[in-house]
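CORE FACILITY INTAKE
Project code: CF-77B
Contact: R.S. (postdoc)
Sample description: multi-component assembly, four entities in total
Requested service: structural model of the whole complex
Turnaround: standard
Below are the sequence entries exactly as provided by the requester. Do not edit them.
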Amino acid sequence: MTPKAPAELPTPLARTRLYEQVAEQITTWIRQNGLKAGDRLPPERELAARLGVSRATLSQALVALEVVGVVVVRHGDGTVLTGKHSESRIVEAIRAHADRMPEIIDIRDALETKIASLAAQRRTDDDLAAIDASLDAMAASIEHGDRGVDADEQFHAAVTAAAHSDLLAQTMREIASLIRESRIESLSQPGRPRNSLTGHRAIADAIRARDPEAAAAAMHAHVEMVSDVALLREEER
Amino acid sequence: MTPKAPAELPTPLARTRLYEQVAEQITTWIRQNGLKAGDRLPPERELAARLGVSRATLSQALVALEVVGVVVVRHGDGTVLTGKHSESRIVEAIRAHADRMPEIIDIRDALETKIASLAAQRRTDDDLAAIDASLDAMAASIEHGDRGVDADEQFHAAVTAAAHSDLLAQTMREIASLIRESRIESLSQPGRPRNSLTGHRAIADAIRARDPEAAAAAMHAHVEMVSDVALLREEER
DNA sequence: CTGGACTATTGGCTAGGCCACTGATCCATC
DNA sequence: GATGGATCAGTGGCCTAGCCAATAGTCCAG
């Protein structure tokens, strides 16, 4: 409604709570000193004093770390580190290694191939309409000389929805941010958007025909095509 | 080292911290009153009084809920709910629906088939040795009339390791607890452990021969066999 | 050598208080 | 009328001070 959004205002200024900073300090301290599972943090009273905060605030930070699974606080004993760290999250596991593009492609292939197959079996007419709509959007986007990143995501989201599996959708969502990176890379290649659109059409047709094998094959080929770029880029460095 | 573990001692007694109970109460309260994203929690002072805890404790509970992403606490304004809930975690998403056995099988099929394929391409001799060892363990286990649940897990873990993909391994780990349930079901069927062992041998042979397609096919058949039971059980109720 | 009592250490939780931020309202100014 | 400043009530942020409760180690009696 705002009459012409004014470019981009400074920034909403990300303000942090004290406990967040404290938690941050503690984790860096853990990393720097190379503490491992089973090691103990200093007593709350001492740690609070050293960090210059009250015990209450430190306690909040420990609650946060406990929820995330970095430490476990034991009444009367102390605060000990767990081995888990925050490794329970898939994405972070990868981000740590920075460039695991091949692995991303592996899992994407595994999931999307299955998703395509299921979509061919389970899709409703509405699902199909959504998929077709995303194809149109991508075609239009390319017409305008755009790369069609959004439309690309829209297509994959529509197919995923058509598979009617919450778990698969959930897992895809978890690695979505990783996939997005490779997606942008790929679509930046000259002529790639058009190839991608062709691939999408093949997948859509197989789903329309309710042919699981063809859908899986088409999706597999599509993911492979994308991987070319990503892998190439990987070797370049 | 303990001379003969004494069956199963009572229970370590799961003690909970007050803030956990408070957080629990708040979430149930949210659910019962059907609060949605954007709605506000009562002021801390009032809420603390109503729950019969101090503001400090309530604050800890709110930190926990904030870390999990249920609420966002705004200084000077109030505590508002986010729409995210705890849906970021795959396992919990499923546990909520309790019996999503078919979905678990879908994703297991997607991941393990790919893993088998990769294992066939990338396995080292050591990987193969580990896989063979798990087969021996399962055979021995069955000899003893056991169901071989542990050996079964060991086999799949060995294959996963042979795929040399941290991301896939990580994702498998995320849904491991869910798979375990279906695994126990399956192996409880009479004669099933032996069938399972045969399936494992076929997979191992394909990996030994470095034949990705055969490995994928064998794994797919294996997962399908397991699904029979699980799906059957699903229909029974 | 076992079992119980004691004690120092450490976290759990509360009470009460002051400060900082937010949003609404009102009003002086232009 | 619109703008910008001042004010105020409500709300969270964080602190101090203190007592309670659990733990683990020590020591002693049996």
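Facility notes:
- Residues 17-19, 53-57, 60, 74-78 of chain B lie near DNA strand C (CB under 10 Å from a C1').
- Chain B touches chain A through 40 residues (CB under 8 Å).
Invoice: internal transfer
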